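<instruction>
Derive structure tokens from the sequence
<entry> Chain with its tokenised backbone below:
===
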Amino acid sequence: MPDVNIHSLKALAIFKTLFEAGSASQAARTLGITQSGVSRSLSQLEQNLGLSLFLREKNRLVATPEARELYEEILRLMGNIEELRHSVLALKEFGTSRLRIAAIPGLAFGFVPQLIATLLEDNRGFSISFDMMSSHEVLREVESGHADIGFVTLPVSSRVLRVEEWLTTHARCLVPKSHALATRREVTIDDLRDEYLVIGNQPNVGADPLLNLATQHGIHIAGKTEANIGAISALVANGVGISVMNPITAVDQLAHRDEVVMLPFRPEIDFGFGLVYRDDWKQARALEFIRASGRELLQRYPQ
């Protein structure tokens, strides 16, 4: 097997320039060395590799198939070196070059992607894994070490994780723009009498806070459509029914829609969000950045 050392790496760099330039004279001008230096480096590289990289035809260099394959390998190597350089920069800045994030669906459509984009603005060396799952699953992933940090719906409890409360918001009512309630300043639970509702999928229907509130107030509804939280605003926009949702998710989903009106809702339904992480992450510089950037980003949303 040929040796790979600093000299052969220099020879590979000269070979790359020669391959791209197509002639020893042009390669020499590009590199700022003599043409004989280029030829000598090529000869030494061929001897070291045991390969013929160029055919000499009438003072012309014609690349062999082996040369073309070696060139592709060099390009891949350079890409890996550049990736390594970015990883080192991320290590110096944040103490890690990899970040695994798990988040509840309610924060996964806009908030967390914006947070990741902020993190990567000046730190492209980060390798990020981002998964969307329920609060219970987020806890399990972070506890097991399959995720580094997690965004959850509060309250949650864990004997092995640190839990930070970030924000408590009040639900907003989503109403189709053409609906009579869209002109109100706010919507109350009494206004939903005999209305058709759109609610999020729950392990059981009794877990939905809006249906619980309707039951407590003796409100009869016309019917309901249960859907993934990511589809709720689209269903409301298409006139399927009325929904009540936390404003973080609502703002993210309604960013490009004008068919839905978002109004205050009474009585208040609270939604709490927080961050969870293991004890070994409490001093991580990446966590400090996530915490500071995340809290700043949340200020853009209705409270």
User: Anything to note?
Assistant: The longest strand covers residues 161-170.
